[in-house]
Amino acid sequence: MPKTVTFEDPTGEGKPIELDVVNVPKNLDDYEARMDHIPTADPYYVDLGMLYRLAALEQVRRNHFDDTPLHLALRGHMGTGKDHDLEQFAAVLEMPHYRIPLTGEVRDITLIGSVKLHGDGKGGTESRWEDGDITRALRGPALINLSELNAAGAETLFALHGLLDRHQAVELPTGEMVRLRDDVRVFGTLNPTDLRDYAGTQTLNKAFADRWIIWEKDFPSEEELTAMLTRRHSGLRSEYAVLIAKLAAEVNASFTSTDSRTRVETPMSLRTVLDRIPAGLRMFGFAKDPLRRTWEEMVLPHIDPYDRDHYETVWAAVARTGPTKAPF
Predict the structure, then answer these.
(1) Predicted confidence band of residue 76 (pLDDT cuts 50, 70, 90)
(2) Phi/psi of residue 100, nearest 5 degrees
């Protein structure tokens, strides 16, 4: 029998979802390389409901839409964990994961491929086709994450149209049609363009956007951040975890505010909350106020000078001073 995994709804509302893991055929030419692309499960990952939603969509795709493309894009601000969610979904399903950033510098030949010259062993050269990033991923089971969708140039988006609509194929210059296999899933991530100017991003072309289901990925709540900190840093005193989570929640609430006069312009990402601040607390645990010292050394340097007053306003309103006990 095929191996299965079960996804539980963190809210307790939905029924458990059972899915077969992905089988990578051993006769693939790139079997070993593809197996190396299966991510390792993050033992500290906290599913806030996204894995369950992804599993629900996957169940629908397998049972009812096996011949219809249902591509999903996660839209959210920097540091909300969009790419990590997709990576961990691939890890649970034991699915090769290919994250392909679509920055403005990426060309269609990088994604699709090109003809290159190689030595023929006789002192001459010969032309050979070399797959690009997407074409290579499409030749076997894969979860493809087209990261930063709205940073892609027009020619890149045009090259992807046929893959993402009912045609479900990429036509190579060689004449080969690389079709979307039934064990390949195409996802994307993008930043919002309505509130902030993420360098190089743009509003998605409507025809291209229509090829996607788009879900919003919000910043975690204070309670969710506390759970993440507690799981990842089990030795962290609870008063620190609660205060860090409250600071982050307040900063991010200000970031998403529509009042441009008072809002902060840089959010507190999960990297700051889960990595930089705990690292700082271990470094400055000897200080009179370890959290304040960490705030000054590990948080404020990431903030633009004009935005520091806003951060300090949040600190004064939420913390004033940090806990006096050792952090760990």
Answers:
(1) very high
(2) -120, 105
161 vs 277, which has greater pLDDT? 277
Contact 193, 201 (CB under 8 A): yes
- Is residue 144 within 8 A of residue 185, CB to CB? The reply is yes
Closest to 139 in 3D by CA, of 21, 34, 36, 22: 34
Contact 219, 178 (CB under 8 A): no
| 54's tokens | 């992804």
Distances 238 to 84, 281, 298 between C-alpha atoms, Å: 25, 13, 20
Identify the H or E element spanning 229: helix 222-232
Question: How far apart, in Å, are the Cα atoms of 214 and each of 5, 148, 187, 299?
Answer: 25, 13, 10, 31
Exposed/middle/buried for residue 112 (C-beta within 10 Å: 0-12, 13-18, 19+): buried
Of the chain, the percentage scoring pLDDT greater than 70 comes to: 94
What 8-state DSSP symbol labels residue 301? Answer: G
User: What are the C-alpha distances in Å from 99 to residues 96, 187, 233?
Assistant: 10, 9, 27
Residue 292, helix vs strand vs coil = helix
Sign of the C-alpha dihedral computed for residues 168, 174, 175 and 181 taken in this order: negative
169-182 burial: b if 16+ Cβ within 10 Å, else e: ebebeeeeebebee
